[in-house]
């Protein structure tokens, strides 16, 4: 099953009809892991935050969210590039929810208490690939910072 999903997600000639909204959620989860790993420090705080985001987005319990995160880690490790994740998400997730994906990415970036330049750069790239403009991405980031009760710098 895992290999079948990988082959659908990362086919050189993907069939958009073969991908489901669940595949898009798997791509979101793997993208969260990719952001967390962008600064070469993948912490327990980031793992927990990813699980919280997955639980919130998909209505999962703690164990299911932990399993989803573990599966996303494997998929992210196999993925050749970030563009494939974003293409799947853009094709299957409406623009309002793509802004929620950007918010989740910022949550992960701030989970370990520091925002690395690598994470910030990756989120800016992803936002553009998802069709979320710089202004909207900045507003989403500000909303996340306020929600987390932290300083933005």
Automatic annotation (TrEMBL):
Transmembrane segments: none annotated. InterPro entries: DjlA_N (IPR007791), TerB-like (IPR029024). This is TerB family tellurite resistance protein. It holds the Pfam family TerB. Residues 26-141 form the Co-chaperone DjlA N-terminal domain. It comes from the Bacteria. Gene3D superfamilies: TerB-like.
């Amino acid at each position: 099953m895992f290999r079948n999903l990988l082959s659908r997600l990362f086919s050189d000639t993907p069939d958009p009809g073969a991908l489901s909204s669940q595949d898009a959620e798997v791509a979101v989860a793997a993208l969260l892991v990719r952001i967390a790993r962008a600064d070469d420090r993948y912490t327990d705080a980031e793992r927990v935050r990813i699980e919280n985001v997955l639980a919130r987005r998909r209505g999962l319990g703690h164990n299911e969210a932990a399993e989803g995160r573990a599966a996303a880690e494997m998929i992210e490790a196999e993925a050749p590039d970030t563009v494939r994740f974003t293409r799947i998400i853009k094709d299957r997730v409406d623009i309002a929810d793509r802004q929620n994906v950007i918010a989740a990415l910022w949550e992960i970036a701030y989970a370990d208490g520091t925002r690395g330049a690598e994470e910030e750069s990756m989120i800016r790239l992803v936002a553009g690939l998802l069709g979320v403009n710089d202004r909207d991405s900045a507003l989403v980031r500000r909303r996340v910072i306020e929600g987390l009760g932290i300083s933005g710098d």
